[in-house]
Every structure is written in structure tokens, then in C-alpha cells.
Amino acid sequence: MSCKEMTLFYSPASPFARKVIVLLHETRQLDNVELFDVQLSPVSPSGDVIARNPSGKIPALELANGDTLHDSRVILDYLDHQHGGEPLIPRDGAARWQRLTLASLADAILDAAILIRYETFLRPKELHWPTWLDAQQEKIERGLAELETQAASDRLQCFNIASIGIACALGYLDFRQPQLGWRARFACLASWYEDVSQRESMRSTQPPA
Ligand code: BEZ
């Protein structure tokens, strides 16, 4: 499909795709990957993506041999095995499971925020379900409270797989829920995010204005 080794099917608004591009920046692999911007939603999927991932979801990473990897966790794991630097996903020990569990919490926050986005943006207003929306928002709030505790720990001191997931989740909340005001309730997390937002990998992957 392209002269580069791999092709990433993504959307600039997708926080799951952003995680992959941030990792590509951090591990200096961006030049190996063609970025293929696709327009899609759950109710209007992309034929280019479906041909490679039956679920129709992005990100999807097409490899040089024609295989396609998905979802973001699988892609991140694969790409973390393709560079010679310090792994962003610890290979073993307690650190591996702690970082991956934190990354999973960040994904859960994203899942809830994206469900809210779909419910409020795609679904007809008369079909909105406030109880369900509140339950998703509460999930986000509980997740942020746990991340506030973690932000003070050494688990987030280097920019690892957990940090990438959390930073992209917070970026998505700012993008789709600018009214949330999470910084006022979670000061340690806000200070941590302020620092990591200065990284080139985060600055150059901000969601569209
Ligand atoms: C969004 O526009 O919020 C969005 C786009 C792609 C994937 C997930 C969310």
C-alpha cells in the first residue's frame, strides 16, 4: 500500500490511535509508518478498515507482510518489540502488571468517554438515556480518583505505557468534555499532565481544534 514498512489506519480524533502515534514518536519509529487518515463512526464504517479489521475499529496496523494488527493494546505491544531502546512495557516482573493494569484503567476511562460521545452526538436526543450516561460519567470520575493517587507514585515517573494511556485519556477528556473541570478536583494529576503535555510526542498529536 505504501513504500513504508507499515501503514496505520487512524483518525486524528481517536485517542486510541493517538496512543499508538505517541509511542511511535517516543520510540523513534514514526518514519517507518505511513499514516492513513480514515473518516468513520460506529454507524458509518470505513471500507478500508473493514477490509483489514472485521470489527471496523481503528487503530489498525498493516504490516509489511500484509497482516493487520488490532486493537491498540496489541499494536502497542508489537511496536514496543520493534525498537532497541528501553521497553515502554516492562517485559516482566511486578512492574509489567502494574503498568498494564494502569494502562487498562486509562482505556476504561476512554471507553466511557467515547460511549458518552456516541450517545450524545450520534444518537437522536429523544433516545438519550440519562441514567446510563451518568453511570459512564461516574466510571470516569472513579478512574480519575485512582489516577490522582497514582500520579504521586513512581509508577508514572517515566513516560511508559501507563503514562501514554493516561495522558491520551486526559487529552480526550479535555477535547470532548472541556466543561468537566477535572483539574480542580485532581491537583496531582493535573500537575503531572501539565508536565507530560510538554513532550513533543504529545504536542504533535493533539486532537483537531
Ligand atoms: C471522536 O471524534 O471523539 C472519536 C473519533 C474516533 C474514535 C473515537 C472517538
From TrEMBL:
Gene Ontology MF annotations: transferase activity
Alphabetized InterPro entries for the sequence: Glutathione-S-Trfase_C_sf, Glutathione_S-Trfase_N, GST_Omega/HSP26, Thioredoxin-like_sf
Ranges for domain GST N-terminal: 4-87
Keywords linked to the UniProt accession: Transferase
Keyword ATP-binding: no
A cellular component annotation (GO) from this entry: cytoplasm
Protein name: Glutathione S-transferase
Upper taxonomic lineage: Bacteria, Pseudomonadati, Pseudomonadota, Gammaproteobacteria, Pseudomonadales
